[in-house]
Design goal:
single chain; 3 helices; 63 residues; flat
C-alpha cells in the first residue's frame, strides 16, 4: 500500500525510470565509480526518454 496516492501517470513514469536504471545504469555502476564519471551517452539516453528536466514547460522543450 502506498502512503501517497500518486496518479497512474506517475506510476508509469516511475516504472519506466526503474526499468531504465536496471538495464542501463546498474550493470555499470562499479565501472563508472572507478572512472569517476557517468558517460555522456547515458545522460543522452535519459534525456531521450524524457527523464531529465521534467519540470520544464513544453513550450521550452520539456515533456
Amino acid at each position: 500500500m502506498d502512503v501517497i496516492k500518486y496518479a497512474e501517470e506517475h506510476n508509469i513514469f516511475r516504472d519506466a525510470v526503474r526499468r531504465f536504471f536496471e538495464k542501463e545504469v546498474t550493470p555499470h555502476i562499479e565501472e563508472w565509480e572507478e572512472a569517476g564519471i557517468v558517460p555522456r551517452s547515458v545522460w543522452k539516453k535519459m534525456g531521450d526518454q524524457g527523464f531529465l528536466c521534467t519540470d520544464v514547460p513544453e513550450e521550452y522543450g520539456g515533456v
